[in-house]
Amino acid sequence: MKSKVFPYPVKRIGIIGGGQLGKMTAQAAKQMGFYVTVLDPTPHCPAAHLADAQIVGELYDATTLTALAQVSEVLTYDVEHIDVQTLKKLAQAGHVISPSPELLEIIQDKFLQKQQLRKYGIPVPQFAAFEQVTPEHLAQFGFPVVQKARFGGYDGKGVVVLKNQADLEQILPGPSILEQFIPIEKELAIIIARTATGETACYPIVEMRFDDNANICQAVIAPAPIDNAIAEQARQVALQAIESLQGVGIFGVEMFLTATGQILVNEIAPRPHNSGHYTIEACMTSQFEQLIRVISGLPLGMTTLLRPVVMFNLLGEKGYHGAPIIEGLADALAIPGLSFHFYDKKSTHPLRKMGHITILDDNLDNAMTKLRQAKMVLKIIGAEQDA
Q1: Which of 121, 144, 185, 354 could be stapled to 181 by a disulfide with Cβ–Cβ 3.0 to 4.6 Å?
Q2: How is domain 126-180 classified at the CATH fold level?
């Protein structure tokens, strides 16, 4: 029987990584009466502004990871690129880590991740792994083709689309996978919560729209403008993917909708995800509060979408770096239904994620019109211009 009485703080949570995801997770935890310690190499990182304490240290440092575990009742993380071997030792010693280090080890390696999904019959693009991709491998696989670094890629880094022989100079060095290039209608995503007892809660299917040049998500539309049958198909595929991992936590599942109506899983993130930021304003329970509920053994919150919404990532403007300067904030906040989030990063540079906005409206077309207005006035520049 679950306890009905809780001490204060409710629980001591350790977050590995103190970026914007850690910040928004800490904000949800503090709202609910938890004690939060973050581990991050940057003093006064974004999450440290809201957490109770910060341990300054590297995410691959066994000493600092152990120190965080010793002051926390449960550990989670806002980034995949951390020392999974130390986490496995901590888990074996009795420390609670969600999602598990074993799951994280699979996710960290894009080849293992794709193998896991294919093993359980989850539809994925065709793929093959290579220690070093050569022109001969590309000739065998055929153009166009997507190359992804097996380890360490994020926000468009570690991914290239090789269209023909002229792109050979763009081949990424080191272990990677080649993946079938999929002509897609839309890129979809869903946030799924799963508890230790196997309960799940699914958020709406959303559409992600990308900057084709930088391969960074620009906007998220919820609900995705797709028919109900496609949405249900995507939800079922994503649920099967998370069940195959036996994951406990919050997961972002990215998917392709092909021109023939097929759903293919692209990648899974074992943490809160950019495609779920809209849930703060637009859902009964945000993805961040849901994570705190899951890792604390509390009941899942409702995932109901309150109103249609668009989310837009505020990236550092090209041509600027240094201390961030927000242009057009007052004009943007005058747009009905707009909420502004800034990530408290001390410096900006081109394409760096500096914040986001959400715009709620009863009509998605109206929300998109308001987004176009906001994009014209709201920008993150820097105190210094690039030479």
Answers
A1: 144
A2: Dna Ligase; domain 1 (3.30.1490)
**Is residue 266 a known part of a binding site?**
yes
Structure tokens that stand for 373 in this block? 């207005």
What's the pLDDT at 288?
98
Residues near 113 by Cβ (< 8 Å), separated by ≥ 6?
Answer: 106, 107, 267, 268
Is 267 flagged in the annotation as binding?
A: yes
Is 181 annotated among the ligand-binding residues? Answer: yes
The answer to the question of whether 130 is labelled as a binding residue is no
Q: What is the pLDDT of residues 146-186, one digit of tens each?
A: 989 999 877 667 888 888 888 888 888 999 999 988 889 99
Which DSSP category does 147 fall into? E
Ligand-binding annotation for 148, yes or no, is yes
pLDDT tens for each residue of 307-342? 999 999 999 999 999 999 999 999 999 999 999 999
Domain boundaries, the chain: 12-97, 126-180, 184-385
CATH homologous superfamily for the domain 184-385:
ATP-grasp fold, B domain (3.30.470.20)
* Annotated binding residue 157: no
Closest CA to 75 of 165, 12, 2, 139: 12
- Say if residue 111 carries a ligand binding annotation: no
CATH class of 12-97: alpha beta
The C-alpha atoms of residue 177 and residue 179 are separated, in whole angstroms, by: 6
Token look-up 């002051």 returns: 71
**How many residues are present in the chain?**
387
Question: Are 126-180 and 184-385 in the same CATH fold?
Answer: no
